[in-house]
Amino acid sequence: MPPNNIINYFGEVPKTHNYGPKCRLAPISHPFASSDGDDIPPVNAQYFYLSSVPIDDPLSTTTIAAATDPKSARSRLRPFSPGDNNELEKAWLSLSSDAYRQNHTSALSNRPPSPSLAKANADKLRGIARHLAIEHAEKHAREGPSERVQPSAEALPELETATPLCCPELLVDVGVALRTSFCAVARQTQHELDRDIVAQSVMSEMDTIQTDSTATVTERRAPSNSIPPNQSQIDSIMRSCQNDERPNSQHSVKSQPQVSTDRSANVPVPTPTRSSFVDAGISGRPFVRVGTPETPVTSPPASLPRTAIFQPSRLVEEVKSEGVRSRRASSVAAPSSPKPVADVLEAASREVTVGVSRLHEVCLPALQMKPIYWSPVNDIAVVLRATWFYRDDMRPIDPAVANQLEAGYRELKPHTETWNDELRCAVEVGPLGEEKVSHPLWPKIPTKSSKKTDEFMEPRISSNPFCAARCFRGEAAAEGTLLLAPNEDNSIPVPPARKKFEQYHVIYKDATTAYLLKPSLKPSAYYGRRPVAKIMRGLTIGIPVVRGFDYEAWTKKHEKKQDQQNLHAIQTPGNPQENSRRDVCSACKAEEERAQVEDLVLVVHGIGQKLAERVENYHFTHAVNAFRRAINIELRSDAVRGALRRGLNGIMVLPINWRQNLSFEDGGPMKEEDKDNYTPGGFTLKDIEPKTIPAVRSMISDVMFDIPFYMSHHKPKMVAAMVGEANRVYRLWCRNNPGFAERGRVHLIGHSLGSVMCIEVLSRQPTVVPPLQLTKPLQLKHFEFDTKNLFLLGSPAAFFLLLERGALLPRKGRQKPGASPSDVISKDVVGEAGFFGCIAVDNIYNVLAREDAVAYLLNGTIDPMYAASLKTAYVPSTSTSFLQSMGNAMLSIVPGVGSSSTINGANAPAARPPTMRLPSQLELEVHDFTREEVAEKKAFLLNDNGQIDYFLRSGGGPLELQYLNMLSAHTSYWVNHDLIRMLCMEIGRNPGKANTLPSMRAVKATKRVIPQTV
Question: Higher-confidence residue: 688 or 757?
Answer without folding.
Answer: 757
